[in-house]
Design goal:
alpha/beta; Rossmann fold; six-stranded mixed β-sheet; 6 strands
């Protein structure tokens, strides 16, 4: 694949206590030449995120396990450039819905993350769990969807077993989305 000469600059924002699998997947894909980008900074749970980012204006900010609310100032400054991975299947419109591969309605998990979101899939007796990558907007947990992944819920699934399978697909999805964005 031929990439433009200029690499995109990424800032990754992670939660210090997380497994950071998205960060690792993105780093590996960059090292393997799949994503035409370089990581300018990795910020972990810092209140100083905005001043740090302003010093090195990135092409994209990747929320990869970040668990803090992103300020309106940052969202507006980097409109359609802050990517968020969400453990739920975000529709294309706020009043829309997404169908699972078996044509049942999906679960958005609006405002939930981590184990709470996975537990909600199980509590709601969903047939599939899933994740969405979207651009962050001022409308909480909603924005233009860049990709979705689905994971069939199996009999006997626990939070841990389901989350483990879904995380692998999330990691792949993040890489695929960044591959496309960084080609431009």
């Amino acid at each position: 694949m031929m990439f433009p000469k200029t690499k995109k600059k990424l800032v990754l924002m992670v939660h210090e206590g997380s497994s950071q699998t998205n960060l690792k997947a993105i780093q590996k894909a960059i090292n393997d030449g799949k994503i035409n980008a370089e990581i300018s900074a990795v910020i972990s749970d810092s209140e100083d995120a905005i001043p740090i980012i302003k010093k090195m204006p990135p092409d994209y900010i990747c929320l990869a396990g970040w668990k803090k609310i992103i300020s309106n100032e940052l969202i507006q400054k980097y409109e359609n450039r802050i990517l968020n991975i969400h453990p739920g299947l975000i529709p294309d419109t706020t009043d829309g819905n997404v169908l699972n591969p078996d044509n049942t309605e999906t679960i958005w998990n609006k405002g939930m993350y981590g184990n709470k979101a996975i537990q909600n899939f199980l509590d709601q007796k969903a047939t599939f769990a899933g994740s969405s990558i979207h651009f962050l907007t001022l409308n909480f947990d909603f924005g233009p969807v860049l990709g979705r992944t689905f994971e069939k819920i199996e009999t006997g699934d626990t939070i841990e077993s389901l989350y483990l399978r879904l995380k692998k697909k999330e990691n792949q999805l993040y890489v695929e989305v960044l591959e496309k964005l960084c080609q431009k």
